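Need the bound structure for NAP, inputs here:
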Amino acid sequence: MVTGGTGFVGSHTVRAFVEAGHSVRLLVRDREKVRRVFDPCGVAIPESDVIVGDIADADRVGEALAGCDAAFHGAALVDLRRKFAQRVLATNARGVDLVIGGAARLGLPSIVYVSSIAIFFYPGSPPLRLDMPVAQASTAYAQSKADAEHVVRRFQAGGAPIRVSYPTGIIGPDDPEMSDANHALYSWYVDTGIDTSGFFQITDVRDLAALHLRQLELPEGAHRHVAAGPRLTWRETYELLDELTGGRVRRIPINGRVLRAFGSVGDVIKRVYDFNLPITRDAMEYATGWPGVDGSETTEQLGIEFRSAATTYADTLRWMYRAGHLEAKHVGRLADG
Ligand SMILES: NC(=O)c1ccc[n+]([C@@H]2O[C@H](COP(=O)([O-])OP(=O)(O)OC[C@H]3O[C@@H](n4cnc5c(N)ncnc54)[C@H](OP(=O)(O)O)[C@@H]3O)[C@@H](O)[C@H]2O)c1
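Answer from helper R.:
Posting the output first, comments after.
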């Protein structure tokens, strides 16, 4: 049983599951979107295995879980607007309780949940590790991920075989709605990038999907794995993109301290004008102070190799061009072939 299957991470994970021979049942909000997302990649999901419903609806979640032997919970409401704060907190908390808790109460032998490595981040933190305490969050979405972590750990401590992935910013092709990190990459081309101090660390969505498949198939136990690909400085990131396309991303150099102050201003403006963009103090702290996280233990334990930034960015830009998000003038030589 899969939630979030029509989302970015979920759709790649479903592809990985189906290609490995698993049958999936999807709990989705929009039946039509299943066709839009999976027809182009040749993945056939039988109509009878598509349950339409909300992760906060106990009856629909129960119906979706019935008869399944594993669960993958990739659905989350991601919205940074203040007016949706209560809804984000309530939906994501109830979703974790119904899907993860429901699967645990049914005694399913394998349960996979997508967390975020950002739950451990605080300004000035050392490189992130899974044994660090969950940090204080300031947006409803971040708080919902932190809250979920505590719930999931309680179930794990009670013996539930929950396997958790902790990704960095996720980049990759075939994104149904252009999620956060992909949107940042897109906006550097159609708008402008910020060249500041600090790092941008990505995980390729296809590597994350491969990790979820490995986690699903682990024979027993509760597990936690970092999903973390290359960490480049902002300058290295832009230089790599320029090399790949033969063009130049327009970028403005901004000092980290100025950018953080800008984020604080964004927080104040958000109290009056409720926009859904990550111009917050929090986001600027991540952008300018990302301490990094090491994914090599996941590679050693599960054989998941995180591909190079060049491969991820090239494939993603090619897809953005083919899908009509970017024009040939943006992706330069990547448009050829
Ligand atoms: N993207 C990143 O950089 C990143 C980084 C770290 C962690 N994560 C985590 O990865 C997971 C997947 O994120 P994503 O990037 O794939 O996001 P996404 O593309 O927005 O996918 C979210 C999925 O959740 C579904 N959903 C939202 N609210 C729902 C509800 N009330 N009931 C049923 N389904 C609902 C959406 O359904 P629709 O298809 O109908 O919209 C969508 O399929 C999330 O838990 C997120 O916190 C993401």
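Comments: The longest helix spans residues 85-106. The domain at 2-172+203-229+292-307 is CATH 3.40.50.720 (Rossmann fold).
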